[in-house]
């Protein structure tokens, strides 16, 4: 396991940790069977193939 050679300062640690934020997925409108819904861009092919359903 990697072990740090020197102690990292508090400001450097917090600056590094602050960049690890989750981003919301980009939603795109998709129309199936006359219904329009916003779905994540990467799941559009699954919806078109029928692997996922538009519920609610």
UniProtKB/TrEMBL annotation:
Extent of Basic residues compositional bias: 1-18
Any one Gene Ontology cellular component term annotated for this protein: ribosome
Top-level taxon of origin: Bacteria
Keyword Transferase: no
Keywords in alphabetical order: Ribonucleoprotein, Ribosomal protein
Chain segments carrying region Disordered: 1-23
Family to which the UniProt record says this protein belongs: Belongs to the bacterial ribosomal protein bL32 family.
HAMAP family linked: Ribosomal_bL32 (MF_00340)
The protein's name in its UniProt record: Large ribosomal subunit protein bL32
